Each structure stands twice: as C-alpha cells, then as structure tokens.
C-alpha cells in the first residue's frame, strides 16, 4: 500500500492548496488505498529520514513496495500508470495526457506560483508594485491560451486524465484572486474537475488531516 508523507501542520490558507492534495486526488481517482505519515515543519523536514524521501525536505513524498518517490508530478504519473481512470491505454492519448501534466507544471504553475508568492508572502513589499503587473499579465496570457486549447471540450483531451487533475489543481492556486472570472470556460473546467467525487473525497481527507472541515 502507498504511504503518503505530508505535513502535520501548515497555515490555514495552505491546507487546501498543499501539493500533497494532488496526490490524494490521484489516489482517489485511481481508487487506491493509502496511509498517511506526517512530518513537522522545521527540524524534521531536514532530518536524514525525511531527506531520504524528499531531497529538498519538502512534501509530498510517497513510498510503495520499496519505491521512494518525490515531486508531485512524478508521483501523480506513477499513480496514473496504475489506473485507466487517469491515463488512457492507447499510446497517443497517453502521451497527450502526459504532455498536459508537464504543461500544468512547467507552463502554468510557474506563472501562477510566482503570483501566489507575491500576493501571499510579499504583498506589503515595495518591489511588488513593479513586478506584480508583469506577473499578472503573464498569468493572464497563459490562461487565455489554455482556454483556447480547451475549446468547447469538457476536459483538455475530451476525457478526464492526469493532465486535467494537475491543470485543475494548478488553477486552484489562483483562488485568492478573481483572475479566472475573465475566462469563463476555464472557470467552468476547474469547477467541473472540483465537482468530481474523487476530488471531494480527497479534499475531505486533506482538511480532516489538518483538523479542519472541507
Ligand atoms: N515541486 C515540488 C514542490 C513541493 C512543495 O513546494 N511543497 C511545499 C508544500 S506544498 C513544501 O514542502 N514547502 C516547504 C519547503 O519548501 O520547505 C512538488 O511538486 O512536489
């Protein structure tokens, strides 16, 4: 059985957004049982035991039958490989789903994460008044292009895949802003992903893990 390592505690705003959530969501979509191990922020993060699981002292990490794996994208792909719910078996569909997984992390998360870091950690600092408009423009451009690629489809490749799971989870990072309001098809796409029963189960488990209601 998979053991997911996450944090024992994070600030309230981070609880629903933590990268461990996307792993829980993938596990729920794949209908795979898992157990949870927690580490504390601070010394335990940098302990030899935890660095052996996650070389940068971060979360999430998983362990399964002797395999130790870190990076939420690699973990999601590893889980997806065990379930047709997340990855089509047909080679071209599989490759496209993996492309969207990478796009979520490499082309969209890099933009939205910079905005989140500015807004959540540096909002009062003078330099943000110059940098934030550039970052917001970059995010808007990525959102516009993504909405165009989605077109009239329910999911990026028509059916739900691990690529949608990662893309929707990345779009959730913008929840402190109203940026998605300008992209109604993308907003509906994110909400469609969030309405999935597996998402709901994963969110309940994530929040309960931090002693909070979903
Ligand atoms: N690229 C990593 C990022 C992991 C990450 O940023 N984890 C955060 C929690 S959501 C963390 O551990 N932050 C504490 C730190 O970086 O020291 C992944 O996707 O797994």
Automatic annotation (TrEMBL):
GO terms for molecular function: transferase activity. Residues 7-87 form the GST N-terminal domain. Keywords: Transferase. Residues 90-214 form the GST C-terminal domain. The keyword Repeat does not apply. It holds the Pfam family GST_N. InterPro entries: Glutathione-S-Trfase_C-like, Glutathione-S-Trfase_C_sf, Glutathione_S-Trfase, Glutathione_S-Trfase_N, GST_C, Thioredoxin-like_sf. This is Glutathione S-transferase-like protein. It comes from Chelativorans sp. (strain BNC1).
